[in-house]
Specification:
Layout: E1 2-8, H1 14-27, E2 40-45, H2 61-73, E3 77-82, H3 91-98, H4 101-107, E4 111-114, E5 120-124, E6 133-137, H5 138-141, E7 145-149, E8 151-155, E9 159-161, H6 175-182, H7 186-199, E10 204-214, E11 222-232, H8 235-246, E12 272-276, H9 279-282, H10 293-297, H11 300-305, E13 312-316, H12 326-330, E14 336-339, E15 342-345, H13 355-359, E16 365-369, H14 371-377
Parallel strand pairs: 1-12, 2-3, 2-7, 3-4, 7-10, 8-10
Antiparallel strand pairs: 1-11, 5-6, 8-9, 10-11, 13-16, 14-15
Helix pairs in contact: 1-2
Amino acid sequence: MTQVALVPCGKYDFEEVTQSLTQAFYLIGGLGTFVQSGQRVLLKVSMLRGAAPERAVSTHPIIVVALAKLVRELGATPVIGDSCGGSAYGLSEKALEECGFGPLAREHGIETVLFETAGSKNIPVKGHRFLPQIPVSNAVLKADVIISLPKLKTHVETLMTGAVKNMLGCLPGAAKLMVHKQAPSPEDLGHALLDIYSSVKPKLCVMDAVVGMSGDGPSKGKPAHVGALLASADGVALDHVAARLIGYNPMLIPTIAPAKARGLGENDASKIEVVGSAIENMKPRDFKLCSNLMMRAIPKPMLRLLNRFFTVKPVWNREGCTQCSLCVDSCPVTAMTLADETVTIDREKCIECFCCYELCPEDGIKIEKSLLVKLLSG
């Protein structure tokens, strides 16, 4: 049986977080099972873009630093690192500060690293489906142990983001955007993300589900209190439990459904043992899922017939736009242009990867839903 620890954690308080982490690790064999003295341990956080911790866009820094201190108690060296979703110069440096990782890490004497500035190396992907090779940050390759620290969030393309998708950040800069171009559909993207996960597989995964993101995440959804931490050696199984916790059918998540067949993790509920608290006792109230959920549940032949009635797409919002051009710069298929203070989206080119929506720091890109989607999603 594959074990996933699920434990209560009500707030971002160092003492409470440390106790919850310790309990979660105890349930799966102890942190010492995964980390040894003298090792360099990369704490791979989720840092999509710069945003204050209370907005629930990134892993909360208190969880990251609390874990770093536990790693240090074992005689290992913790290093906090990631790279932002966009490709513009200086985004990751800014995000490290805005997300709170930089200030708190300095306060506790913990090293931080930005994946873009560490350089990268192309590595082959064995058994790949979409990505025969990937550029991986040297900060990742130099680590003795990788711990994935995802945030529990909904996602408009993959429905949910978790431990598997978190490893996309190991590709620095614009390389992440090219993954969307190479794998444009949600199913293709799921396989591409599993290609990456298989190549930089973390030894341990710890999910921040104290406050998650509901609605149309992963950057502009609504913070939602869940009150939990999850931990497992198997990122797929952890994501499976997290999906069930917030009300998803895990087999609709494109990073979970094909994983077992590829030998990358457990996605069979009968073979996953949830230790600690029961899922039923930890389910949050009124956690709103992505508005395009019903589109993923409808059989594809029927969806193709009704396609014009079921649409969820990014649109430019003039009132919320600051003309920063980040959406244009971040589009992997160059479907967006900015001219005469107007952003135009070429619908023939657009693959609806929602990178523009995810990375817009203001309210310049919104999600437009067809009337039927609005009615069905509430």
